[in-house]
Structure formats: C-alpha cells, structure tokens
Automatic annotation (TrEMBL):
Protein origin, superkingdom: Bacteria
Catalytic activity: precorrin-5 + S-adenosyl-L-methionine + H2O = precorrin-6A + acetate + S-adenosyl-L-homocysteine + 2 H(+)
Gene of this entry: cobF
Pathway(s): Cofactor biosynthesis; adenosylcobalamin biosynthesis
Residue span(s) of domain Tetrapyrrole methylase: 3-221
InterPro entries: 4pyrrol_Mease (IPR000878), 4pyrrol_Methylase_sf (IPR035996), 4pyrrole_Mease_sub1 (IPR014777), 4pyrrole_Mease_sub2 (IPR014776), CobF (IPR012797)
Gene Ontology terms for molecular function: precorrin-6A synthase (deacetylating) activity
Listed EC numbers: 2.1.1.152
GO term, biological process aspect, one: cobalamin biosynthetic process
Protein name stated in the entry: Precorrin-6A synthase [deacetylating]
Lineage, highest ranks first: Bacteria, Pseudomonadati, Pseudomonadota, Alphaproteobacteria, Acetobacterales
Length: 258
C-alpha cells in the first residue's frame, strides 16, 4: 500500500525544517524531486541539499522527475490548471509504480507549507484517499517575510487578506481590509493600484542566502523593486517573491531606546 507525505520545507533554508519534517523525510522509502528545466535547476538542487543534510536512512531512494509544464496559452485558466495537475499526477504515479512496486511511503518536499497556494494536496487527492496522505506543515513565505522585515502581519484587531497578483490586478484592493499579502505575482501588480498612503514590504528568496528585501512608501520604492526583481530573475533564472501592502491609517508615537 502506498502512503504519501507532503512535507513543508519553508523557503529552502535548512533551518526552516521542523523536527516533524526531518522525521518524515527519514521515514520515506522514496523521495520524489521535481526538475523544472535548466533555468530552475537550483530548486531541485536545494531539495537535494536538504536531503543530504538531514537524511540518515540509507534505504531511502531519491528520484528526480521532469515536471510537466502548464499550458499558459490556454484561455481557460482553471481548465488549464486542471489539465496540468492531471499531467503531474500521471508522472507521480509512473515514478511511484516504477520505484516502489511493492508499496511503501513516498515523500515530496513542498516549498513553504502544503496548505498555502500550493496544489500538491490537490494533486495527491487524484491518486490516494485522504487517510493515506499526510501533510507536514512548514514555515510559510508569509512568516518568513514578516520576520525578515520585523513587522506584524496584522494591525491591532484588524483583518488582513492573502491574495494573488492576478486578483489584485483584476479586482483591485478589496473593501474592508488595510493589509494585503500578495503571492504568485509575476507582473508586479502593485503598479495597478493607487500608491497614495500605501506601504510595501517586499522580499525575494526570503530566508535564503540570496534574500533581497525592500520596504517603504509604494510611490517611492515601486520602480526600484521592479528593477531589482528583473535583475535578480535574470541572474538566477528564476525568482520567488512575496510582498505585503498596508494602508497607512494613522501615525503612532514611538519611543526610541538608547
């Protein structure tokens, strides 16, 4: 019988691994590592490095597979994503059948936490019933971003919203919230909103040695973020970034310690 563990690994920093994640890695008979082409070879290498740092079980197999590419030209976005997930599930099934024909425990290392803007749980559900899937929580990019900027995620007693770049571009700033966390934004969608009285806290490769941070009034730092982001993507061949937008409602008195 096959069981599947989806292990949150934070943002790629080995120090983000929880004891539960390390235990689950070592309990696996097979660890599947996706390859996403030469431009994103670093992502596979980071997963392999994490395994080499904490894996002590000599019986664990580590197997790489080529990740299917989503058809970005499909005008039906949701249908395109469904087709992509089906293709990924097929590849998983092929690799598992080949390398664990007698059954066993399979693990996948998931950036951040499997529950936040990641489809690994949905793909797993195509292959196995819920009772044979385990989700091991990891540090989310949201936690890593707010810690890097030493800010609170929410204002006192106030709500915040986690959304995507697509939603921000198409629907604008939602009513009733003053703090937005934006993920999955390849188009710098903060340029589509009125920057007046908005602070931005942006980070790329958060928690990794390559970490880049920028913060300030959106009107002042938007152009710099766009430039720095483009340079980093050209240099690394890929980028993972996230940002928090906050409307400045009132100023607060501060006391500075010596």
């Amino acid at each position: 019988m096959i069981t599947l563990s989806l292990i949150g690994i934070g943002t790629g920093n080995p120090e983000h691994l929880t004891l539960a994640a390390i235990r689950e890695i070592n309990a696996a008979d097979l660890i599947l590592i996706p390859r996403k082409g030469n431009a994103k070879a670093d992502l596979a290498a980071l997963r392999e490095t994490l395994c080499s740092d904490v894996l002590t079980n000599p019986a664990t197999q580590i197997v790489s597979f080529d990740m299917p590419v989503r058809d970005a030209t499909n005008p039906d976005y949701l249908r395109g994503v469904e087709d992509w997930h089906n293709a990924i599930a097929t590849v998983w099934n092929r690799a598992i059948t080949q390398h664990l024909p007698q059954g066993g425990q399979v693990a996948l290392l998931v950036w951040g936490d499997p529950a936040l803007y990641d489809s690994t749980l949905r793909i797993a559900a195509r292959l196995l019933p819920p009772e044979r899937i385990r989700s091991i929580p990891g540090i989310m990019s949201i936690n890593a971003l707010t810690a890097a900027h030493t800010i609170a995620l929410n204002e006192i007693g106030a709500a915040f919203m986690v959304t995507t770049g697509r939603h921000l571009r198409e629907k604008g700033w939602p009513e009733g919230v003053d703090t937005l966390v934006v993920l999955l934004d390849g188009d710098c969608s903060f340029t589509h909103i009125d920057p007046a009285d908005v602070q931005i806290y942006w980070g790329a490769y958060v928690g990794m040695p390559e970490q880049i941070l920028r913060a300030g009034a959106l009107s002042d730092v938007a152009d710099e973020i766009i430039r720095v982001r483009a340079e980093a993507r050209r240099h690394h061949g890929w980028i993972m970034d996230i940002y928090l937008l906050r409307r400045v409602v009132t100023s607060q008195d501060s006391q500075v310690l010596p």
